[in-house]
TrEMBL record:
Pathway where it operates: Metabolic intermediate biosynthesis; chorismate biosynthesis; chorismate from D-erythrose 4-phosphate and phosphoenolpyruvate: step 5/7
SUPFAM superfamilies in alphabetical order: P-loop containing nucleoside triphosphate hydrolases
PANTHER family: SHIKIMATE KINASE (PTHR21087), SHIKIMATE KINASE 1, CHLOROPLASTIC (PTHR21087:SF16)
Catalytic reaction list: shikimate + ATP = 3-phosphoshikimate + ADP + H(+)
Top EC group: transferase
Domain of life: Eukaryota
Molecular function GO terms recorded: ATP binding; shikimate kinase activity
Single biological process term from Gene Ontology: aromatic amino acid family biosynthetic process
Keyword RNA-binding: no
Membrane spanning stretches: none
Record's protein name: shikimate kinase
Organism of provenance: Lactuca saligna
Amino acid sequence: MEATVSKSLQLTTWNSSDYTVPTLNNSMRLYTRYEKNKSKRVNNMLNCNHLATIKPAIGHRTAGLKASCTSQNFPASLLKSETFIAEEDLLLKKKSEEIKPCLSGRCIYLVGMMGSGKTTIGQILSEVLDYSFFDSDKLIEQAAGGTAVADIFKLHGEGYFRDNETEVLHKLSLMHRLVISTGGGAVVRPINWKYMHKGISVFIDVPLDALAQRLTAIGTASRPLLHHGSGDAYTQTFMRLSKLWEERSEAYTNASVRVSLECIADKLGVGDVCSVNPTQIAIEALVKIEDYLKE
């Protein structure tokens, strides 16, 4: 599915004595577009200033190569790895087809700490479920005229960002057939859970040490609650993540289901949670959602 979605919100401004601050109003209009083919299909859209087509890729992972080869001169390990990937994709497709009717169009909200892979997993889920995908942080950035989250924090403070985050979640909660990747701190406001509980919330639980390794490798400059100055990057990142976890861990328990990378790694018989790929996480998310819907 090619989900054509809006990525901008309309803004008004108010003037202070020092500077002009953009504020979100209620002009993010929601509407529904009906397409006619063999059956009437509903696509949820946001009124937009420009459109972007999201085409998530599934199953494109690099396979390690070994020296042994088959008679066709292909590395045996590559063939084995590609077989596993194909099997995973088939399982993902099968599970998504089983769960679609049970969802009844309900939105799926992905929550979890920064760097837990919510965006990548969300894109995979939206693809197989034929849903549209939104990243709440990206919507807020584009609502602020393309201002990055880190700069929004710096210019206007965390409270301003959280207010806009709540409004975005409110607007999205009025829609159907969406997969939404939320910011790591979206869980701290009870009002946000009121909106997310209109759908199904999925907590992507990744161990802090794995998150710290991942975030240190890619850098923390774009993470306003994580960016640090001097000192060992990994240690500083891990300590800050630990502090955020203390503040948020209880809130994450409000999620409808929990997807633990440690549990997935145990099932797969791998020792490192970093070996668990996004498709495997997406499959586990669908299994957990199915169990939740059966309760």
